[in-house]
Amino acid sequence: MRMISVKDFGAVGDGTTDDTAALNAAFSQTGRSIYLPAGSYLHGQLDPPVCAQIIGESEYDAILTPMAGVSTGLTIPGGEHYPSKLASFKIDGNNTLGATGLFLGQSAGLDPLASSVQMDGVRVLNFTGTGAIGVRVGNLLKSTVRKLTAESNTLNLLLEKVTDLLPTTVHFDSCVFNEAETQGAKLIDGWNILFTNCDFESSREEGTLLLPSAGGHLEQIIFDSCWWEHNHAAGTTAHQFVAGDGTARGGAVIHTSLRNPRFSTDQNSAKAVRMNGPAVQGFVITNPRVYSAVSGAISIENGAFGEINEWQAIGGMVFDDVVHDVLNKCASRGFAGFRSWSPTLAALGSGVASSSISTADYRLEGATTVLQLDFSVVLAAPGTPSAITATLPTGLTPAQPTICYGFVTEDSGSGPAYSPGILAPYTDGMLYARKADNSPFTAGATVNFRGVAIYEN
Fold first, then answer.
1. Coil, helix or strand for 225?
2. pLDDT digits (tens, 9 = 90+) for 246-299
3. CATH assignment of 339-456?
4. Where are the domains positioned within the chain?
5. pLDDT tens track for 332-390
6. Who contacts 365 (Cβ-Cβ below 8 Å, separation ≥6)?
7. From CA 319, how far away is CA 406, in angstroms rounded?
8. Alpha-carbon gap, residue 294 to 265, rounded angstroms
9. How far apart are CA 142 and CA 78, in angstroms?
10. 10 Å Cβ neighbour count for 303?
């Protein structure tokens, strides 16, 4: 079946003629494929299309241009008939104020009224003003969005349910979300959402924000090989990827994974990742790269918990760039299956005036022991010990000396100083906690050490 051009229905595409009627006539052709030639098609509020496809000449030259007063540039509500494929055109909201550019899954009903869309090479830009959104995803499922560019909108991408059906099983591939006035992407609701090879860049606030409604769900939200750069600009205390707001969000759940994420940071830019609050449950970060490492590049706080795998291979940062507070259950390996032990602490070349242990847990994984230790000691004076020792769990000594990493906070009375640490299990049944540069601790200082050791028994 051949494609029908919108010009067959009288569309002009000169940027000044009102093409609303022509576009509505074309998009009302049930089951037909509609072609959008190069041109700028000025239009008012369009009816929901029922054609099978809308295919443009290119994402740069075939342009839908909503007039002032339009609330949504193009809406795909679902139902029995709607375009299942959108490709190669642009929606430019330069004339609008507070509008949404593209609404995928606007239906207020349940499946089978939800939309299922394949999209490739669509650009949505310049939707600004209070409440404006570039692309909103509502009751959408079993959909693939490839090479979407959402840029220069108040909010580039919003995932939020319309009624009871979450955005479900949606794949964003090779998309760009940049230069938003707020977030590059904000996720409120979603289930099984996958982003691969996407770029979140140069937004005034977070590149990505996961913030469910009270009691809501963001389940299986996965980012694979994505890049975050220059978000939050010079907000040096902010983070480019944020999950949660430090509260329980009324029992909400955030399950998210970042696989091979890349973050461009420096001393004058926002940090990388913040997992914040008890709603963030069981996150997984695997093989992160944080370029131009900054202190606290990754922060886990207020009861968030999960695991950071392959952190020993992190490029451009050391493990002390992971900051976590006392409520966090584990910042480096999964918490499930751990058992506690009671190590005895001592200081080489000095004494210990007092000590406390926040965490001393270990887990067996076959012949491997995974051990996490978090303690504080007040060193006796005089003496400048080179290491603080802790006894290993009985019978679980390494087959050979092993070096793993942690981080050190040392306070000699003038405030805490942070430095990378080494946590080394030895065949003598002892753990040696020291600074990575082997410099001694200060006599009388309060030392906090947090680290993880992984070794073969």
1. coil
2. 999 998 999 999 999 998 876 677 889 999 998 998 888 888 887 765 667 888
3. 2.60.40
4. 75-324, 339-456
5. 444 445 678 899 999 987 889 999 998 888 877 667 788 888 899 999 877 788 899 99
6. none
7. 6
8. 7
9. 12
10. 21
